[in-house]
């Protein structure tokens, strides 16, 4: 095992001989992560259709709000899952926690896909849908912390940013797959068929891949129990004030990230309900935005390895903040395909870059023996509070004000708070920077 010196501690990382192991670990972790996020996120693309199936109402707005409320129910159990499975990963290992999370997600998505409609089984239909979402939330809450810790621990120090960037990138891949399925179904099915059973096809397509994902998780190499060289700093068992500060800043940044992500994910419903564009254009806008997010997530991780974590967080976040209102104004006034696709795609491309740098920065800032649980708990509480309510808040703001710019107001507030917290984050990259910003080498010190 080779050793690399970070700003805070000395940790063992895979040597060049372990690069094959690293690639296999990253592939296995991110494919499983992608499948889970596909199953969880597909609900938002078909919120209207699912609302009509499980929550029929005389008022279309009421039906949509009930459906979005059930989408939000999946966020209620995220913090519980993050605490239970995150702590489990810190005690037993990353692989068993990730495998358990994936198994629970498999059960939940199958239940949601095969539950009959309200017209068939009555009140039992929404109850089963809500239970499935609660189980999905628990599973996904226990996914992010262990997976992020796993990716960081499996990668060499010089490539941690890129390795960890596969976590947010795989989420974007999942969202892209969901949007692509929605686009294909909307082009090949009538609106009646899409409302009746098209959304079930989208969920079942994800369910088909679940056995492969479960097998892939079960054979991953474990990183948590890998033998380590002596460390320079003894890590505390309990969360130190420094760790709590990182978790607090991380909560704000993740809240900003999730509001932006879920408002962007809401654009399919927004384009259909508020802008009244065609279904193919609405799904196409989400598809383009998510493809831009994939590229931006990987780019952010690569740049974080080359230029450090803080500057790759701060400057793209500031640029995205300045772009939000003009982009939404352009979309709302023109309602053209070019504005919707180009504006949203560009905003996503710039606005997603900072979060890969943040993911690796927070993972590096947390002690290893609490990394999975602390990261996952911070993530889940931020997502649970702000992600689960983002689409409800935006729908309510549009309904209350009658303004198509309501999503921009919410995103502006969230992005400004995220930028402030990013400025307060420490630099954790295993690099030295001179005044002229040139990268210099870092040498490991032997423990005293």
Automatic annotation (TrEMBL):
SUPFAM superfamilies linked to this entry: MFS general substrate transporter
Residues annotated as domain Major facilitator superfamily (MFS) profile: 25-429
Matches recorded under Gene3D superfamilies: MFS general substrate transporter like domains
Pfam families given in the database record: MFS_1
Transmembrane segments: 37-55, 61-85, 197-216, 246-267, 279-300, 312-331, 337-358, 379-402, 408-429
Membrane topology designation: Multi-pass membrane protein
Entry similarity comment: Belongs to the major facilitator superfamily. Metabolite:H+ Symporter (MHS) family (TC 2.A.1.6) family.
Alphabetical list of PANTHER family matching this protein: ALPHA-KETOGLUTARATE PERMEASE, CITRATE-PROTON SYMPORTER
Name of the featured protein: Putative MFS family arabinose efflux permease
Organism: Bradyrhizobium daqingense
Organism phylogeny: Bacteria, Pseudomonadati, Pseudomonadota, Alphaproteobacteria, Hyphomicrobiales
């Amino acid at each position: 095992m080779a050793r690399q010196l970070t700003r805070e501690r000395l940790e063992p990382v895979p040597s060049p001989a372990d690069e094959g192991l690293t690639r296999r670990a990253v592939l296995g972790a991110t494919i499983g992560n992608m499948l889970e996020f596909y199953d969880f996120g597909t609900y938002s693309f078909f919120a209207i259709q699912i609302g009509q199936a499980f929550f029929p109402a005389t008022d279309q707005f009421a039906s949509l709000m009930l459906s979005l409320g059930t989408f939000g129910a999946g966020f209620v159990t995220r913090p519980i899952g993050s605490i239970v499975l995150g702590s489990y990963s810190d005690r037993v290992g990353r692989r068993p926690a990730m495998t358990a999370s994936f198994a629970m997600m498999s059960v939940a998505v199958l239940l949601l896909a095969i539950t009959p409609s309200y017209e068939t089984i009555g009140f039992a239909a929404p109850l089963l849908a809500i239970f499935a979402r609660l189980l999905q939330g628990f599973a996904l809450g226990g996914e992010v912390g262990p997976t992020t810790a796993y990716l960081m621990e499996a990668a060499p120090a010089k490539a941690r940013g890129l390795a960890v960037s596969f976590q947010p990138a795989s989420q974007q891949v999942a969202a892209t797959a969901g949007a692509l399925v929605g686009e294909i179904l909307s082009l090949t099915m009538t609106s009646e068929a899409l409302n009746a059973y098209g959304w079930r096809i989208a969920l079942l397509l994800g369910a088909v891949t679940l056995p492969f994902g479960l097998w892939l998780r079960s054979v991953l190499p474990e990183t948590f129990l890998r033998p380590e060289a002596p460390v320079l700093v003894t890590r505390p068992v309990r969360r130190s004030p420094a760790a709590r500060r990182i978790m607090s800043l991380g909560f704000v940044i993740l809240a900003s990230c999730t509001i932006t992500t879920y408002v962007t994910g809401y654009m399919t419903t927004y384009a259909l309900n508020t802008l009244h564009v065609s279904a193919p254009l609405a799904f196409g806008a989400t598809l383009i935005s998510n493809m831009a997010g994939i590229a931006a997530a990987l780019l952010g991780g690569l740049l974080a390895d080359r230029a450090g974590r803080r500057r790759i967080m701060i400057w793209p976040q500031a640029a995205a903040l300045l772009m939000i209102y003009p982009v939404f104004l352009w979309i709302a006034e023109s309602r053209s395909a070019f504005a919707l696709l180009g504006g949203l795609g560009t905003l996503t491309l710039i606005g997603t870059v900072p979060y890969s740098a943040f993911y690796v920065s927070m993972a590096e800032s947390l002690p290893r023996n609490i990394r999975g649980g602390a990261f996952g708990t911070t993530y889940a509480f931020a997502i649970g509070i702000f992600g689960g309510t983002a689409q409800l808040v935006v729908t309510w703001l549009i309904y209350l004000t009658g303004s198509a710019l309501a999503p921009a107001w919410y995103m502006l507030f969230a992005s400004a708070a995220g930028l402030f917290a990013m400025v307060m984050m420490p630099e954790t990259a295993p690099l030295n920077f001179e005044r002229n910003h040139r990268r210099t080498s870092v040498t490991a010190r032997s423990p005293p």
